[in-house]
Amino acid sequence: MLDLEFAIGHHLLVFGIFGVLCAELIAVRRGMDQAAVARVAGLDLWYGILAGLILVVGFARASMAAKGWAYYSHNGFFWAKIATFLVIGLLSAPPTIAYVRWKRAGAAPTDAQVAGVRRFLLAEVVLFALLPAFAAAMARGYGQF
After folding, report:
1. With helix as H, strand as E and coil as C, how does 35-71 read?
2. Which domains does the chain have, with CATH numbers?
């Protein structure tokens, strides 16, 4: 039963973070005012919280659930999934820094600033698509070494 609970929790968190990422991508657009910046900063806070929870639940699942750490630690797709998640996390830092700067400045971001942040958000979305592919391959035993 623990395996099922971890799996459900992990999947709900991953769907949640993808929803937040898509909401950020929609909200970060030309013509943003300070209220929009505040909303995006709030979304970004949830993005960080969900990312942390995904790591906690994911590693708990890998170490304490049915397949165990021995299965996951010897799987190339597991490590590809972790590496991709970390790259997505690194790509999320510049937008977070931009939101903080925009809030502190008390002025609306320029179109160029918005375009720069959107490039990072789009890169995150593109890389995010790899995560379920790696997870599906891993769950079926591909990538074992």
Report:
1. HHHHHHHHHHHHHHHHHHHHHHHHHHHHHHCCCHHHH
2. 2-139 (1.20.120)
What are the pLDDT digits (tens) for 98-136? 999 999 999 899 999 999 999 999 999 999 999 999 999
Maximum distance among all Cα pairs of the chain, rounded to whole angstroms? 53
Q: Report in angstroms the alpha-carbon separations of 127 from 18, 37, 81, 114, 144.
A: 11, 25, 10, 20, 22
Are the beta carbons of 6 and 60 closer than 8 angstroms? yes
**Average pLDDT of the chain to the nearest whole number:** 96
Angle subtended by helix axes 130-139 and 76-105, to nearest 10: 150
